[in-house]
Amino acid sequence: MKTHLDTDRVAVVGAGVAGLACARALRARGRTVVVFDKARGPGGRMATRRDGAATYDLGAPAFEAEEPRFARQVRLWANAGVVAPWSGRFGRLGPSGFIPQQPARVQWVGTPRMSALTRHLAHDLDLRTERRVASLVATGAGWRLRADDGADLGVHAQVIIATPAPQAVPLLAPAPALAARAADAPYQPTWAAMLDFAGPVDLAFDVARPTIGPLALISRDAGKPHRPPGPRWVVHATAAWSAEHLEADPVEVAAALAEAFARFGPAPARSVAHRWRYALPRHAPAAPAALWDADIGLGAAGDWLGGARVEGAWLSGLAAAEAILAGG
């Protein structure tokens, strides 16, 4: 006989903001939730890269809060000490130099690193890392998940796929309409690089968006609140440059991005590149913040549904949880 625990068991595939927001909302309503992620820890594109004692926010450099529910949540995170406002010097960088341009909204960052927020969201959840979910098999009790190494990840009554759309397509195959929606949500890549310098870097900005060359973003990582001092910078290449060099050798990419930075400041002593194959959805979502097929207990969440960036991912995860809970 099926137990109440069996019918309440939900698997969330993906431990980025969308997946963790979904899992927390479900757990708050008494559901048993297991979160799976292929990486060594939570974060997705909120990840922070460690390099010795130093850390670099290689994904989202900051985020904004506009939607009222998300804005309230951010204030709670701020009270808990896991995010803080970044009152840096922002602007654009062109042939004539730096042009200050303050953002219209507060820029929030995780403290003491961007991944602090997702680790906060993952706290006390049943999170199983280094587990790449490869397939879902329907059973009489729900869905049996299997890892790419063949390991049985258990049976779950309901499943939410909270990965970038291209990775969600094969897992949504049992729901062709949902898989088609994911297949129609292309992503753009981004090559990022962490730059280290032999001495201080005296530039007039903390964040700049170049209008020339292959760089889309230059960010002074040590300029964020609650970071240790040091000449640590992060750069992101443009989507076009990243796509053109998508399969390039990371060492060559790191050298190219270091050279691009040197157009505006000193040459880095060291540069290490990281590829985000699925950095941001190309198009703004035109429909629901989450997908859910109540008949089979399978759905999806992510910034490709709720809107690009952190706010959209969080809202999508919340919408997925609400869709599940609406079924009782």
Protein model, in words:
By secondary structure, the protein is of the alpha/beta class. It has 2 domains: 4-47 and 119-184 and 284-325, FAD/NAD(P)-binding domain (3-Layer(bba) Sandwich); 87-105 and 187-281, Polyamine Oxidase, Chain A, domain 2 (Alpha-Beta Complex), CATH 3.90.660. Helices cover 28% and strands 32% of the residues. It is built from 10 helices and 20 strands. It has helices spanning 4-7, 17-28, 68-80, 115-122, 165-171, 176-183, 239-244, 250-261, 303-306, 309-325, and strands at 9-13, 32-36, 48-51, 54-57, 83-85, 90-94, 97-100, 108-110, 126-128, 133-139, 142-147, 152-156, 158-161, 187-196, 207-210, 215-220, 232-237, 270-281, 290-293, 298-301. The chain has a 7-stranded mixed β-sheet. Strands 9-2-1-13-20-19 form a 6-stranded mixed β-sheet. Helix 2 runs parallel beside helix 10 and helix 5 runs antiparallel to helix 6. The longest helix has 17 residues, at 309-325. It is globular and about 65 Å long. Mean pLDDT is 94; it is low at 1-5.
